[in-house]
Amino acid sequence: MKHTGLLLSLILTVGPIAHPTQAQEHQGGTGSQLTQRCRLYFEFLGRTGAGREETFGRDPFGMGYCAGLIRGTLAVAQALMPNRVCIPTNATGSQLVWAVLQHAETEPAVGLEQDTELVLRALENTFRCP
């Protein structure tokens, strides 16, 4: 099961494979697109974490993309670069999303970088290994 999740994370992170005659380009989004999706994720959760239906209807895919990309990037980083990101065992998915949002708001240049780069950099800065 763990390997299936890692494989799915890699597929989601890398994106679809283009036909050899097509131009190769990144299939993901930008840092600013991810930031918008993650802000909506927190708006949906509200203070109680119970979820707000009126927010969910606005962009359910985007909210799922935010949470899934962060979890997937983290899984790949932990598997391939084990000493680069050290997440506490009790960290929640919401805390990971919050860390990415906080980093995006304090670093104005992240809006133009790829969303996976933003996530990795934010997690590295927030959850440094000793």
Spell out the key features of this protein.
globular, single chain, disordered N terminus, 130 residues, mainly alpha, 61% helix
Describe it for me?
It is a single chain. This protein has 130 residues and is mainly alpha-helical. The protein has one domain (29-126). The protein is built from six helices and no strands. The protein has helices spanning 2-14, 31-45, 53-56, 60-80, 93-106, 115-126. The protein is globular.
- Specify the overall morphology: globular
Largest sheet: none
Beta-strand percentage? under 5%
**SS-derived structural category:** mainly alpha
Number of helices: 6
Q: pLDDT under 50 segments (min length 5)?
A: 1-26
How helical, in percent, are the residues? 55-70%
**What's the number of structural domains?**
1
* N-to-C span: 29 Å
Would you count the extended β strands for me? 0
Quote the average pLDDT.
Answer: 76
Element-level helix/strand string: HHHHHH
Q: Compute the gyration radius: what is it?
A: 15 Å
Topology:
Elements: H1 2-14, H2 31-45, H3 53-56, H4 60-80, H5 93-106, H6 115-126
Helix pairs in contact: 1-4, 2-4, 2-5, 2-6, 4-5, 4-6, 5-6
